[in-house]
Write a structure and sequence with these properties.
This is NAD(P)-dependent oxidoreductase. The chain has about 270 residues and is α/β, with parallel strands linked by helices. The chain contains eight helices and nine strands. The protein has a seven-stranded parallel β-sheet, sandwiched between helices. It has a two-stranded parallel ribbon with strand order 6-9. Helix 1 crosses helix 6. It starts with a strand and ends in an 18-residue tail after the last helix.
């Protein structure tokens, strides 16, 4: 029996949204798919809502009759400030106002490792470590984590902020041997956050059961997330085709990887 009447999934046409779209289908009678891009043919239990998260009225309307929101929309990586501001900061505020106005009681938010990207890999931080964003993209994730805390404390809207590390079809480089989150484990994490009896305001790391574990996720055990995949089957291939990196480089020292070596996205390249 479905847990929800209707779930709103933002970013439904994106890399992870496209995986969550079928992965979460059994949890609701209807899945309302939201994106700026076309969504293709709809399944019988799917609805489409095409709009920009920067449009407050459209965002609020999209949450009507929903009893949970899986918010994976917004800028997918580091980009210019105006895009981060409109899609990730304003857009997420619109999502929480939509939840408040329509009485949605639970939001699952796609936060990121880049909210804590300047912690060192060896620090073994827990979910209560202070934010250390590595980019404007990371700053937007910290903003929404704080915003969701406010909406829990003041308005009783539960949120699980999932700090997703590297979620791709398979590990692509040496960093992903410890930061990898398989698509299947990503679906398991979101499902756990949707079905846990109580979430309150929870921060959880999104990472598979890799041999090297750079963070301590025990503070989110109440979600009931058990990763079943690992990067180990890919280790030999990755190590065989990629050189050993300089351990002193910021991209190796810090959790945020190559984001820690990026300049300001608004700077114009030198001619």
């Amino acid at each position: 029996m479905p847990n929800y009447e209707r779930i709103l999934l933002t970013g439904a046409a994106g890399r992870l949204g496209s995986v969550l779209r079928p992965g979460l289908a059994h949890l609701a009678k209807k899945i309302r798919l939201a994106d700026r891009e076309p969504l293709g043919d709809l399944k019988p239990n799917e609805e489409a809502a095409i709009f920009d998260l920067a449009d407050m009225e459209a965002t609020i309307e999209a949450a009507k009759d929903c009893d949970a929101i899986v918010h994976f929309g917004g800028a997918p990586h580091e980009c210019v400030w105006e895009t981060v501001l409109d899609s990730s900061i304003r857009g997420s505020y619109h999502i929480y106002e939509a939840a408040r106005r329509h009485g949605v009681k639970r939001v699952i938010y796609a936060s990121s490792v880049h909210a804590i990207g300047y912690h060192e890999v060896e620090a073994q931080i827990g979910v209560d470590a202070p934010p250390r964003p590595d980019s404007l993209y990371g700053v937007s994730k910290c903003f929404v984590e704080s915003l969701s805390r406010l909406y829990w404390d003041k308005f009783g809207i539960e949120t699980a902020c999932l700090r997703i590390f590297s979620s791709f079809p398979e590990p692509a480089d040496r960093r992903m041997l410890w930061s990898y989150l398989s698509f299947a484990d990503c679906v398991r994490l979101v499902e756990a956050a949707l079905t846990a009896p109580r979430v309150g305001h929870t921060i959880s790391f999104g990472i598979s059961d890799n041999k090297v574990k750079p963070v301590d996720n025990s503070g989110a055990n109440h979600l009931g997330f058990t990763p079943l995949d690992s990067s180990e089957p890919a280790r030999e291939g990755v190590e065989g085709r990629t050189p050993v990196p300089d351990p002193l480089r910021p991209s190796v020292r810090y959790l945020g990887g190559w984001f820690c070596e990026l300049g300001h996205p608004d700077d114009k390249p030198a001619e």
